[in-house]
Amino acid sequence: MPVSGMSHRTTEEVIACFNQVVADHDPRRLAELVADDCVMEAIQPAPDGARTVGRDACIAFWEKLASDRASLFEPEEVIVSGDRGRSAGGIASATALPGRYVV
């Protein structure tokens, strides 16, 4: 479901913008990228990861990540199937647990 007032973008465009927002440490643009029915499944904390459901919860999670200027975000793989996408990579940070991520 698109965010109210958001222009139509392809899944590839949304993922590319998301990755850039996090890499640039600029969480202000997250709201324009996240749909109301967003679900994010993180692979941390081990062993089972964490599931975040809903626009507000996902934005809150990603704002912390994108605001961490001590982190280095390295997207590695993007897989798109229709309106669903998966972005995987790594995060190195002095202030948070470094590790792998899947969005």
List keywords for this structure.
single chain; 103 residues; alpha+beta; three-stranded antiparallel β-sheet; two-stranded antiparallel ribbon; 2 helices; 5 strands; 25% helix; globular
Description:
This protein is an alpha+beta fold and 103 residues long. Helices cover 25% and strands 32% of the residues. It has helices at 11-23, 55-67, and strands spanning 39-42, 50-53, 71-81, 84-93, 99-102. The protein is globular, with a radius of gyration of 13 Å.
Q: In angstroms, what separates the terminal alpha carbons?
A: 17 Å
Q: Return Rg in Å.
A: 13 Å
Q: What structural class should be given to the helix and strand makeup?
A: alpha+beta
> How many beta strands in the DSSP annotation?
5
